[in-house]
Amino acid sequence: MLEINQLIMEDNKIEKHQQPAESYIKEIKRKTRSRFLAEEKVRIVMMGIRGEGKVSEICHQFGIVESLYYKWSKDFMEAGKRRLAGDLMREANTTEVKQLRQHLDEYKHMVGEQAHEIRMLKKSLNGNI
Predict the structure, then answer these.
(1) Dihedral (C-alpha) 19, 22, 25, 29: value to the nearest 10 degrees?
(2) What CA–CA distance (Å, rounded) separates 44 from 55?
(3) Where does the signal sequence lie (predicted)?
(4) Which of 40, 47, 63, 111 holds its CA 20 to 30 A away from the CA of 80?
(5) C-alpha dihedral, 29 to 32 to 38 to 39, nearest 10°
(6) Contacts of 41 by beta carbon, 8 Å cutoff, 6+ apart
(7) pLDDT-derived band of residue 80, with 50, 70 and 90 as boundaries?
């Protein structure tokens, strides 16, 4: 009976020491987690698409898991689809739109003046001949 109690006490000691160790390891992993820029993600995904190596080898080379690679690949493809669905049109900002509308109004005014001048010239030619 004494042996069983000693084993239980030792097991409890191990569990107490494992808790801080596990949390310490998690903390280290969290702090050392790699953060990849968008350009790096694209480069890694393109390596896989081009067949520059097996996906598993590419993932090992960059220290990422395959599921992360496939998530990036899916995101990459969906972003491309969305971009192509928009017919590659660039969104204009509000200042550009205001400037373009102002130019359009100026051109409309100029065309109106020219149309008026043409009418006046036609009238004067018809009256004098």
Answers:
(1) -120
(2) 10
(3) none
(4) 63
(5) -130
(6) 72, 76
(7) confident
Q: Which two tokens stand for residue 51?
A: 């067949």
User: For 33, which DSSP code?
Assistant: -
Name residue, tokens 């042996």.
Answer: 3
Q: Which long-range contacts (CB under 8 A, 24 or more apart) does 73-81 make?
A: 73/45, 73/48, 73/49, 76/41, 76/42, 76/45
More confident residue, 15 or 86: 86
Q: What is the pTM of this model?
A: 0.45
Question: C-alpha angle with apex 68: 59 to 55, nearest 5 degrees?
Answer: 35
Whole-number Å distance between alpha carbons of 43 and 34: 16
- The tokens for 41 are 């993600």
- Angle, vertex CA 45, rays to CA 40 and CA 50, nearest 5: 125
- CA 42/CA 7 separation, integer angstroms: 54
Angle at 13 between CA 16 and CA 31, to 5 degrees: 30
